[in-house]
Design a protein that fits this description.
heterodimer, A: alpha/beta, six-stranded mixed sheet, 20 helices, 20 strands, disordered C terminus, B: mainly alpha, elongated
Chain lengths: ~525, ~280
C-alpha cells in the first residue's frame, strides 16, 4: 500500500538565489516497509523534501505546486494542531548531528520521556518502562543506567542511537532520516545503518533516507532517487541504479566514490624527505579534583616519506591522525621522539629557529571556511607566505597570480574575499597559499572531507597533477580509506595513537594483517560499487 | 561597508552618533561661541535660564555663565574620556594579546594581576590614585585607564584564545609568519568588532568616572568640568535647581549617546544576534 506519495512537488526559492526553485518537479511513492534513498550533492534540494514533508520549510519558502499525500490524505489540508500530532507520532525524523538534536542539559531518558508525555502518555510508570524498552531496542547497553546519562557522556554512535530511540517512541509509519550517519566514523556508520535496516524490516516502517553517499545507498536502499540542483535525474530500484546507471550524472557520482586509483602509480625510489621516529604525544586533562586523565594521542609512531610519494594516514576520529599531522608540521610539539625534515632534526628546535625552515613543509587544512582569513582578500592570503620569505610586494603579487592560475582559479579571484567562493574553490585557495612558498612536503589534513563527492575528485586530481609537476611529497590524512586508496602509494592505518599497519595501498586492500584494517577494508570494499 | 550601512539603519545609534559629533564640534568651537573664560563672573549671580538672552542658560552662584561652563566642560569630559579610552585600549590590548596568544605562565601571571585590579572597587581605586598623584587631567586619565584595562584585557584575551585555534591562524604559523605579525594581521582584524563595542562602553564609564572625580573635588582645579559644576552648586539644589540639573543632563545625554553608539555597533557587527 502506498503510504506516502509526493506528486509534482515544486518549491520556489526567493529571488537572488542561485536558481529559481529548490525542487522543480519531484514525484515519489513510498510504501510501508520500503526504504527509498534520496541522493544528491549539497544544494541539490534533498533536505528541502524532508522539510516540506514535515511542513517545516523555512520562510519564505513554500510549496508552489504539487501534492503531498500521507495515507491518501493531503498534508497541506491539515491544521497545525493535527500536523503536530502527526510529527513525532506517525512521521518522525532523525537528523545528521545527534548532539544538536539532543538537549545537552537533560538526561537522555528524560528527553525521550518528554516526547512520550507531549503525545499524551500519562502514566509515568508506563513512560519509564517504554524509555528503557526503546533504549534497549536500539542496541544500547544497560538501558536502566544509560537513561540517566547526559548526552556528552555518550559517544557519537550512542547519541545517534538515542535520537533513533526518540524517533521510534510511537512506532512511526514513516521515518525520515537526513544524513543520519554522515557525522559518524566508518565502523559506527555501518552499525547505525544495520540498526536502521533491522528496525525498518522489524516494524514494517517506511524509511525515507536522505544522503550524499552512494556507499550508504548500497547498504540500505530498496529504491533510489538521484537529485541534481532540484531536478530528478534518475529514479529506480537500487540494483538498477547502482549496477546500470542510465544518466551520465549518476555515472559520474558513482565513479567519484570508487576506490580505484586516479592514475596508475609507479614505485617511488626517491630520498627520504620526512621521517618520524618513536614519536609520542600525551594529552593530560584534569578529571575530578585530583585525578588526571592521560591520553596517549601518539604512541611510538614510526613513519617515513620519500620524495614524490603520497603516504595516506587513515584512522577514525580519536585515532591520533590529526595530532600526528600537527606534530609533523610542528604546530604541536611532540613529547618524545624525532622528526626529520629533509634530513634535519626539527622536533626539538625552538619556534624562532624553526621559522626559516617552515617553508619546506606546508599544510592544507580541513575546513575550507575556517582556514581562510575572512578579512583578507584572496590575493593577500596567498601573498602572506612569499612576503614572510622576504619577497618584495611586487614579486609576491606576481607569485600569487601565478599560483591562482596553477590551482585553476580565475585571475579575478585576486581582489575578492573568501566568502565569495564555494567550498571547492576555497580549498584551491588553501592549496595555493601552501604552494606559494615552494614547499617540498605537503601535509593534507582531511582536506577533502568537507566537500561533495564530485568536488572531492577534482581536488584529488589537482593534488595529483601538482604533485607530479612540482615533485611534491604528500602526507594525506583522512578518515576515509576509499579516498586514501585513490591517491596514496602507501597507507598507514592508525588506531588509538598507534600505527597498527602500514603498507603499499594495493597490498593493504588485498591482504590486511591487522584485524582493525581488515574491518575497515572489509566495510569499504563491501560498500564499494563496481 | 555593510557594517556602516547596518549601523546607519538604526535610528537610536545614528542620533547618538550625531549628538556626539555635534557636541564635539560645539566643544571645539567653545572659545568662539562664548565670551571667553568660563570662570569669568560677567552677570548677575543665580540667573535662571531663559531670562537673559546674553546668558540664556542662566548663571551660577558667582555669576559665571552656565552655557559657556557646559561647553568648556564638554571639552574636558570628551578629551578625558577619549584619551582615557585610548590608554585603556593600549594597555588592555597589549596585555590581552600577550596573555591570549602566548598563554602558559605569562597568561597566568597577567590574569592574576588583572584580577587584583578587578577586586578593588573601581571608584575607590580611582579616588585614591588621583588624590595621591595630585588632581590633574593626566592623573584622572591614568586613574580611569588603570581601573578599566582589566575588562578590555580579558575580552581581548578570550577573543585571541578562540581565534588562535582557527585554521587560518595556524596556516600563518606554518607559513612562518612571526607571532607579532600574526597578532596584527591575522587575529586583530577579526577581533576588532567586539573590541570596538567594548571601547564605547569603556568611554561611557570614563565620562562617569571623570564626573564623579570632579564632583568629589578631585579634578584639575584649572579646568571647568561638569562634575565640578554640580559640586559647586550642590548646596543650592532647592533654590537654583538648574545649576546642578543642566550639567547632570549633559552627563546623562553624553553617556546615553555613547551607549547607543556602542549598542548600534554591536548590532551592526553581529546582525545575527540583534534580536
Amino acid at each position: 500500500m502506498t503510504l506516502l506519495s509526493v506528486e509534482h512537488l515544486r518549491i520556489a526559492l526567493p529571488p537572488g538565489a542561485d536558481r529559481s526553485h529548490a525542487l522543480y518537479d519531484l514525484s515519489l511513492q513510498l510504501n510501508s516497509g520500503e526504504c527509498v534513498c534520496v541522493v544528491g550533492e549539497s544544494g541539490s534540494g534533498k533536505s528541502m523534501l524532508a522539510k516540506a514533508l514535515l511542513r517545516q520549510l523555512p520562510p519564505p519558502l513554500e510549496v508552489e505546486r504539487g501534492r503531498l499525500l500521507f495515507r491518501q490524505q493531503s498534508l497541506a489540508a491539515l491544521s497545525e494542531a493535527a500536523m503536530r500530532q502527526l510529527r513525532g507520532r506517525d512521521i518522525s525524523m532523525v537528523f545528521q548531528e545527534p548532539m544538536s538534536a539532543l538537549n545537552p542539559l537533560l538526561r537522555v531518558g528524560e528527553q525521550i520521556d518528554e516526547t512520550l508525555r507531549a503525545h499524551g502518555v500519562k502514566s509515568s510508570h508506563e513512560r519509564r518502562r517504554r524509555v528503557v524498552d526503546l533504549l534497549g531496542y536500539v542496541g544500547l547497553p544497560d538501558p536502566e543506567r544509560l537513561r540517566l546519562a547526559y548526552p556528552f557522556e555518550l559517544s557519537g554512535g550512542q547519541r545517534q542511537r538515542v535520537v533513533i530511540a526518540m524517533a521510534l517512541a510511537f512506532d512511526p509509519a514513516l521515518l525520515i532520516a537526513d544524513e543520519p550517519t554522515s557525522a559518524l566514523d566508518v565502523t559506527t556508520q555501518a552499525q547505525i545503518l544495520d540498526l536502521l535496516r533491522k528496525i525498518q524490516q522489524d516494524k514494517g516502517m517506511a524509511l525515507l533516507f536522505i544522503t550524499h553517499d552512494f556507499a550508504v545507498v548500497e547498504a540500505i536502499a530498496d529504491r533510489v532517487l538521484v537529485l541534481q540542483k532540484g531536478h530528478v535525474v534518475e529514479q529506480g530500484t537500487a540494483r538498477e541504479v547502482l549496477r546500470a546507471p542510465r544518466e551520465p550524472y549518476t555515472r559520474q557520482l558513482l565513479a567519484a566514490v570508487s576506490a580505484q586509483p586516479l592514475s596508475p602509480r609507479g614505485t617511488v625510489h626517491g630520498a627520504v624527505v620526512l621521517k618520524a621516529e618513536q614519536l609520542g604525544k600525551v594529552f593530560s586533562s584534569r578529571s575530578g579534583w585530583w585525578g588526571r586523565r592521560i591520553t596517549h594521542a601518539l604512541d611510538a609512531v614510526q613513519l617515513q616519506l620519500r620524495e614524490g610519494e603520497t603516504l595516506g594516514i587513515v584512522g577514525e576520529s580519536g585515532s591520533g591522525k590529526s595530532t600526528l599531522g600537527r606534530c609533523l608540521v610542528r604546530l604541536l610539539s611532540a613529547d618524545s621522539g624525532r622528526i626529520e625534515w629533509l634530513g634535519r632534526e626539527v622536533a626539538t628546535l625552538s619556534e624562532r629557529r624553526l621559522r626559516p625552515l617552515r617553508s619546506d613543509v606546508q599544510m592544507i587544512f580541513q575546513d575550507p571556511f575556517a582556514s581562510l582569513n575572512p578579512r583578507q582578500t584572496v590575493g593577500h592570503i596567498i601573498m602572506t607566505g612569499p612576503l614572510v620569505q622576504g619577497l618584495t610586494k611586487v614579486l609576491a603579487e606576481a607569485r600569487a597570480r601565478e599560483l591562482l592560475e596553477l590551482v585553476g582559479l580565475p585571475a579575478t579571484a585576486f581582489e575578492r574575499y573568501p566568502h565569495e567562493f564555494s567550498g571547492g574553490q576555497r580549498q584551491r585557495i588553501g592549496i595555493a597559499r601552501a604552494l606559494a612558498v615552494d614547499p617540498k612536503i605537503l601535509i593534507a589534513d582531511e582536506c577533502v572531507s568537507a566537500l561533495d563527492a564530485l568536488i572531492q575528485v577534482q581536488i584529488l586530481e589537482l593534488l595529483e597533477s601538482l604533485q607530479r609537476r612540482l615533485k611534491l611529497s604528500i602526507v594525506f590524512i583522512t578518515h576515509d580509506l576509499r579516498v586514501a586508496a585513490r591517491l596514496c602509494d602507501r597507507i598507514a592505518v592508525m588506531q588509538g595513537g598507534k600505527v597498527v599497519e602500514q603498507g603499499e595501498t594495493a597490498q593493504l586492500f588485498a591482504d590486511a594483517r591487522h584485524p582493525y584494517t581488515r574491518a575497515l577494508t572489509g566495510q569499504t570494499l563491501e560498500a564499494e560499487v563496481t | 561597508m555593510l557594517v556602516f550601512r547596518r549601523f546607519v539603519r538604526q535610528p537610536s545609534a545614528l542620533i547618538g552618533a550625531l549628538f556626539l559629533l555635534l557636541l564635539t564640534l560645539l566643544a571645539s568651537a567653545a572659545p568662539w561661541l562664548t565670551s571667553g573664560s568660563p570662570w569669568e563672573m560677567n552677570s548677575q549671580p543665580m540667573l535662571a535660564p531663559f531670562h537673559d538672552s546674553a546668558h540664556w542658560l542662566g548663571s551660577d552662584l558667582l555669576g559665571r555663565d552656565l552655557a559657556s561652563g557646559l561647553l568648556y566642560g564638554a571639552r574636558v569630559s570628551l578629551a578625558i574620556s577619549v584619551l582615557a579610552s585610548l590608554a585603556t585600549l593600549v594597555v588592555g590590548l597589549l596585555v590581552g594579546a600577550v596573555a591570549g596568544y602566548f598563554g602558559g605562565w605569562l597568561d597566568g601571571v597577567l590574569m592574576r594581576v588583572a584580577e587584583f585590579f578587578q577586586i578593588i572597587p573601581q571608584l575607590v581605586l580611582a579616588v585614591i590614585l588621583v588624590s595621591v598623584l595630585e588632581p590633574s587631567m593626566l592623573s584622572t586619565i591614568l586613574a580611569i585607564a588603570l581601573v578599566a584595562w582589566p575588562a578590555v584585557a580579558r575580552l581581548v584575551r578570550s577573543e585571541f584564545l578562540t581565534l588562535r585555534q582557527r585554521e587560518f591562524v595556524q596556516a600563518a604559523r606554518v607559513l612562518g609568519q612571526s607571532p607579532w605579525a600574526i597578532i596584527a594581521r591575522q587575529i586583530l582584524p577579526n577581533a576588532l568588532g567586539p573590541l570596538l563595542v567594548t571601547m564605547t562602553f569603556v568611554m561611557a564609564t570614563a565620562i562617569l568616572t571623570d564626573a564623579a572625580l570632579a564632583f568629589l573635588g578631585l579634578s584639575d582645579p584649572e579646568a571647568m568640568s561638569w562634575g565640578y559644576m554640580i559640586n559647586a552648586s550642590l548646596g543650592l539644589l532647592r533654590n537654583a535647581w538648574w545649576m546642578s540639573f543642566l550639567p547632570g543632563l549633559a552627563i546623562v545625554l553624553c553617556v546615553l549617546a555613547v551607549n547607543r553608539v556602542g549598542e548600534g555597533l554591536r548590532v551592526a557587527f553581529e546582525p545575527g544576534r540583534s534580536l
